[in-house]
Amino acid sequence: MMSSSDPEASATPFQPLAAHFAKAQRQYQQWLDKVTPFVLYRWIGTAVLLALFMLRIVVAQGWYIVCYAHAIYLLNLFLAFLQPRFDPSLQDDLLADEIEEGGESTSPLPSSRDDEFRPFVRRLPEWQFWLSATRATVASIFASFFEMFDVPVYWPILVVYFFVLFLLTMRRQIQHMIKYKYVPFDIGRKARYGGQR
């Protein structure tokens, strides 16, 4: 009779499969850790994948709905990348509510815009943006090899609708950036600490 402490008695037929899956997960995570510092090369790789996907769509003359869904997903990622983690309009509303109640502000954030330097913190960090965009592009390439995803649509309407959606959402995002005076990019700006030199 086998004892319950015997490791072979508690082994299931799926245990070797689970071990291989765990090993593959570790190797994938190690690869991600290795490519993390190479921002430019990561984005170049994603751009190449995106170009291959677009080439596949143009050559195959199909899978327009997959391409449209992919473009909408990338637009949502880009908007989340441009937005601050904490919406300034919500913070202003919370601050106003606290002041109306007669209490002092309990917010950990400065109560006026000039109190303290606050760096721009994105709602979607660059790393997550890249990883999600790359995974979505690989999934879209994979989906373009299956006929069931090739839904017949009139593609010029999808293109026009996407550009209208892009322009409207970017206009709203730019108005938000102007209203709350933040710039999500730091290209060309040099951080200065202390007095001017």
Description of the molecule:
- By secondary structure, the protein is mostly helical.
- It has a domain of 136 residues.
- The protein contains 6 helices and no strands.
- The relative contact order is 0.12.
The number of E-state strands comes to 0
Mean pLDDT across the residues is: 81
Q: How far apart, in Å, are the first and last alpha carbons?
A: 83 Å
Q: Could you say which overall geometry the principal axes of the C-alpha atoms support?
A: globular
Indicate the proportion of strand residues.
Answer: under 5%
User: How many H/I helices?
Assistant: 6
- Gyration radius over CA: 24 Å
Helix content: 55-70%
Oligomeric composition of the shown chains? single chain
Which structural class do the helices and strands define? mainly alpha
Order of helices and strands: HHHHHH
Given as residue ranges, the uncertain stretches (5+ residues, pLDDT < 50) are: 105-111
User: Major sheet: size, sense and barrel closure?
Assistant: none
Question: Helix and strand layout, with pairings?
Answer:
Elements (H helix, E strand, L loop, with lengths): L14 H21 L3 H22 L3 H19 L5 H13 L25 H18 L11 H26 L17
Helix pairs in contact: 2-5, 3-5, 3-6
Membrane topology: Multi-pass membrane protein
Keywords: Membrane, Transmembrane, Transmembrane helix
Family: Belongs to the RER1 family.
